[in-house]
Structure formats: C-alpha cells, structure tokens
Amino acid sequence: MFVPAEEGAELAAFDSVYADIGDEQSIEQNLSTFSSHMTNIIRILERMTERSLILLDELGAGTDPAEGSALAIAILDHIHKRGARTVATTHYSELKAYAYNTPGIMNASMEFDIKTLRPTYRLVLGVPGRSNALAIAERLGLDKSIIEASRVQMSSEEQQVQSMIASLEENRLTAEAERLEAEKLHRQVKQLQQQLEEERRKFAQQRDRLLARAEKEAAEAVHKARQEAEEIIAELRRMAMEERASLKEHKFIAAKKRLEEAMPNLQPAVRDQAANRERAKEKIEPGDEVMVTTVGQKGHVIEAAGNDEFLVQIGILKMKVSARDLERIRPQKSQQTLQAGANVKRARNAPVRTELDLRGSTLDEALIEVDRFLDEALINNLGQVSIIHGKGTGVLRSGIHEFLRKHRHVKSFRLGEYGEGGSGITIAELK
C-alpha cells in the first residue's frame, strides 16, 4: 500500500493490522451484511492492542441508520479509549459530528470534483466529505423536480450539515489557492532579495574601486601641485635675489597664474569638508599668519578680498585664497604689514632688531625671514646684523650662507667667534 505521507515522514510500527472491508454476507451461513460486519468487528475488538491498526469500511452500515450510527459511535469510542490507531469510512453525518467534537479524532475526506464527476485522489484533512448524491444524480440527468423533492425530504439538521460541509469545502479551496499564491509570491520575493543582495555587493565593490582610484588620483594631483608650487616659489626667490631692482609686475602676475594653475581642482572629501567648516569658524583677520593648505606654504593675510576670500602674501607672491583653504597659525596680528616686492614698513614705535633667531625653522621659512630681516635692517641703516641658525646638521647654515652670498646688499659675512656663538651664528656686514 502506498502511504499518503510527505517525504521524510515517520510511521508507527504496528504489531497487527485488522480490516473490515467489503460485503461478507453469506447465504450459506445465513448472515446479512450487517451480521458479517459485526462478526469481523467483534473478532477485531477481542484481539486488538494499543499498537494495532484497524481499518473499518462503512462502519454501522446495513441496518437502521439511527441505530447504525449510534453503534458506530460507540465502537469508535471504545477503540479510541483502548489507544489503537483507526481509520473508518462512513456516510453518517452523526459520525462526522462525533469526529469534530472528540479530541484525538479528525475528519478527513477524499476530494471529489463535482463538475467532472471524478475523484482527484487528494486526501483532505480536517474537512468531512459529502456524499454528493443529489449533485451526482442531477448531473446524470435525474428530473429536477425529483431532486427538489428529495431536498425537501431531508431534515433541517441534515441540510445544515451539508451546507456547513459545502462551506468548509469552499473555504478550503479558497485557502488552498491563496496558499499557492502566497508561496509563489514568497519565491518571487526571495528571488528579488537575492538579486538585490547581489546588486548591493557589486555596488559596494564598484564604490570601493572608484574611491580607491579617486584617492590615488587626488594624492598624485596634490603631490604634483606641491612640487610645481615649490618650483615656482624657488624660481620667485631666485628672481627676487637676482633682479631685486628690476623685477617687473608682469613677472609676479605670470608666476601667480602658474601657482594658481598648479592647484588641483579636486572635489573635497567629506572629512575635508568637515575640517574646512571647522576652519571657517575661526575668524581670520589681516595680519594673521596662515598656512595655505592647497600649496603647503605659510603666508600672511594682507586684507579681506570679499566672497569669503583673502589676499595672502607668500614670500614675495600675493594671491587670493579661499577661507576654507587657510589655517590660522597664530591669532595675534603681525606688527608688520607686508607690501608687494621686498618692501617692508615698520610701525613707528616698533623696536629695531639686530638679531634674527631661526632655530627650528625650515630652510624655506628661514630664507623668507632672512630676506625680510635684511630689508628691515637696511631701512634702519644697520651696518651689521646677527643671524642665529644653530649648529645642527649644517643644512640651515649652508642655505643661509648661499642666500647671503647672492644678496646684493650684503657686503660680507662670517661665522661667529668665540663668545659670539661660534658656528651657530652668522654675522653679516651690510652695504
């Protein structure tokens, strides 16, 4: 026998299987259908155990329906209390109601298609079956008046039971269709989720690649711009030393244009924008010493240029810089106001410096300060000045000496003697 169970189901093991199926009436033994059934059932009841499987076909049939249904209920109740597994078929509505109201007993039916008058061979659990006698007779051509008369003969309770069963069957079919539709939608949703997850993964990979490439390009652009800016500043410094007296304004403009073109046109990253917003909160005023982040050089703010920009002097170069590209180095104003070229105006009451301490400065910063210091010394008619550069590795000293050697207003220079600072200081004689 084929077992109506899903794959992976577990079945109980029975010590015996008893069945009362078919019509065993005997003329020879003078047994009616009911008697033959009862003979088998009595034998089953005597031999069964709680591990037996009992199959009963049309229990209580072959006698008065009222007595047959009552007897059938009593027999099923007895077997149920003994704990044996039972499968019983019936057309009695009373047995259907008994199964509905008794814990441990369940109605079931084999599905039947009224339209085609054919069974579907589907076992439906929880729903009692209908005899469908009137529907089958009507489909086979029995006179409708007879069908209607038979319905009148049915009791109201029987009609209610049949109506209830029909409603259950309809609801079951609707629920089955909705379940299938829900399973279909679930499969579609799962497929869409998988597709979205795959798209998200691809997007994340593409985003990471683009970010990595953008960061690499940005780093290369900034490095290139910084190198070019350093070359331009070095050239300006050379021009200032060699052509101090004849340096024309158009050369400053051309150098400034080259410096602005060297700046990379990059979209700032989110973290850079946040840093810029923080820097913008700091109020920058004329005279402040600032770091120009786009070129990596220090300068002094000359004046506000409008549109959130400032005119900044970097060495001998003046340029407009956005506030977001400036970092203030110290809040106090400078005592000097820088002008174009190498001219310096000293405040009326500012003290005259004869000594410049450059220890801790880079060579570029030191040369700018030396150039400014010498201009100030010339304005004040000083004949000798001292430049403290320290001993260290000698790089700062060598760079300053090279600068003094080419300076048109330096007559001579020497290292300090004992008591003056030795090799950590340079004494310059001015023309």
TrEMBL record:
One of its GO terms (biological process) is mismatch repair. Residues 356-431 form the Smr domain. Gene3D superfamilies: 3.30.1370.110, P-loop containing nucleotide triphosphate hydrolases. It comes from the Bacteria. Pfam families: MSSS, MutS_V, Smr. One of its GO terms (molecular function) is rRNA binding. SMART domains: MUTSac (SM00534), SMR (SM00463). Residues 158-246 form a coiled coil. Keywords: ATP-binding, Coiled coil, DNA-binding, Hydrolase, Nucleotide-binding, RNA-binding, rRNA-binding. The keyword Transport does not apply. InterPro entries: DNA_mismatch_repair_MutS_C, MSSS, MutS, MutS2, P-loop_NTPase, Smr_dom, Smr_dom_sf. The keyword Ribonucleoprotein does not apply. SUPFAM superfamilies: P-loop containing nucleoside triphosphate hydrolases, SMR domain-like. This is Smr domain-containing protein. The lineage of its organism: Bacteria, Bacillati, Bacillota, Bacilli, Bacillales.
